[in-house]
């Protein structure tokens, strides 16, 4: 079986990560755009159903049906569940929070990976990286402003907890990947994840697809999760198609990036997603972060990049095996 070291191509890895992050930013923008009229589980189902068709096509180019066989099905399932939870939590917040704020908070995931690697992987993390983690978490505190309450807050603090918990589940997923060292083709990994998404979204449909659980709800995030299915109309039909196409691009590009180059090389380029989120928030939704939010974003961005660069300086890859798809 091929390993990541057999396909070292840093330039291609950087190209794939940039493509994947661009597709992620478009994906987030489209879901926020559609969040006012459709339930999240419907978007996930349609997106993943379309995306898995593209991914299965890519499977044929990367070796055929045989590459879908795996000796670690439980690992892939658990990783898939973690990514599903990360998606549900992040997108539930996205229905309420500005795009840039939700995205920036989610980017504390690499810092959480650093912390979790100490008890779960037995890794030694020096004072410089611990300091960077503290700075990044301070950025989260500044953005979420937990000291405010009542009418002083535009958004409930509970909503801010959603992307934080989403980042935590994503970090747990990455720790599992590092600890168990799964190896699969990029297209196969995308198929596994999309399959979990389809199963999870169908489960939501069986429980809440008729919208009966939204009666009396005021929380926009819960309404987004439990709203009744509605067949897309007009331009929305093409936006759903775009979600599916993006799903395939994200699934393949991120997996390919971390197969072709080590994480210390490509991971810093994930932070391109932050300025892209600010751009889409401004261009589509007329949102611009205020100075306090900008300060939090700068702290999170600086801390995350420091951790990655410190790992590279120590010549120790942040993630030892292929990275799972962040928000497939």
What does this structure look like?
It is a single chain. The protein is mainly alpha-helical and 328 residues long. It has one domain. The protein is built from 13 helices and no strands. The chain has helices spanning 10-34, 40-61, 73-94, 99-106, 109-121, 127-144, 157-180, 186-208, 220-226, 235-260, 263-266, 273-285, 291-313. Helix 2 (40-61) crosses helix 10 (235-260) and helix 3 runs antiparallel to helix 7 (157-180). The radius of gyration is 19 Å and the shape is globular. The two termini are 25 Å apart. Mean pLDDT is 82; it is low at 1-6 and 317-325.
- Helix/strand-derived category reads mainly alpha
Strand element count = 0
Mean pLDDT: 82
Radius of gyration (CA) equals 19 Å
Percent of residues in helices? 55-70%
Low-confidence stretches: 1-6, 317-325
The N- and C-terminal alpha carbons lie at a distance of 25 Å
List the helices and strands and how they pair.
Layout: H1 10-34, H2 40-61, H3 73-94, H4 99-106, H5 109-121, H6 127-144, H7 157-180, H8 186-208, H9 220-226, H10 235-260, H11 263-266, H12 273-285, H13 291-313
């Amino acid at each position: 079986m091929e390993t990541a070291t057999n396909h070292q191509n840093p330039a291609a890895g950087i190209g794939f990560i940039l493509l994947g992050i661009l597709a992620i930013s478009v994906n987030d923008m489209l879901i926020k755009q559609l969040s006012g009229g459709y339930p999240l589980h419907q978007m996930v189902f349609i997106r993943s159903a379309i995306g898995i068709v593209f991914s299965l096509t890519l499977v044929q180019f990367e070796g055929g049906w045989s590459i879908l066989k795996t000796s670690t099905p439980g690992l892939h399932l658990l990783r898939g569940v973690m990514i599903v939870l990360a998606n549900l939590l992040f997108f539930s917040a996205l229905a309420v929070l500005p795009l840039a704020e939700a995205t920036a908070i989610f980017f504390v995931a690499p810092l959480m990976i650093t912390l979790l690697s100490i008890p779960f992987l037995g890794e030694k993390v020096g004072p410089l990286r611990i300091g960077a983690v503290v700075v990044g978490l301070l950025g989260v505190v500044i953005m979420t402003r937990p000291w405010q309450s009542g009418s002083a807050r535009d958004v409930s603090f509970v909503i801010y907890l959603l992307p934080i918990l989403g980042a935590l589940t994503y970090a747990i997923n990455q720790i599992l990947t590092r600890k168990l060292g799964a190896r699969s083709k990029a297209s196969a990994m995308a198929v596994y994840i999309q399959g979990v998404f389809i199963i999870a979204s169908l489960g939501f449909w069986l429980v809440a697809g008729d919208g009966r659980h939204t009666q009396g709800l005021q929380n926009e995030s819960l309404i987004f999760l439990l709203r009744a299915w509605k067949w897309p109309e007009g331009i929305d039909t093409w936006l759903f198609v775009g979600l599916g196409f993006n799903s395939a691009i994200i699934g393949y590009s991120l997996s390919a990036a971390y197969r072709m180059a080590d994480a210390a090389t490509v991971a810093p380029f994930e932070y391109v997603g932050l300025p892209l989120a600010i751009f889409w928030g401004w261009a589509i939704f007329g949102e611009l972060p205020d100075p306090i939010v900008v300060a939090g974003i700068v702290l999170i961005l600086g801390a995350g990049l420091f951790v990655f660069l410190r790992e590279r300086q120590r010549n120790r890859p942040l993630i030892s095996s292929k990275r799972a798809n962040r928000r497939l």
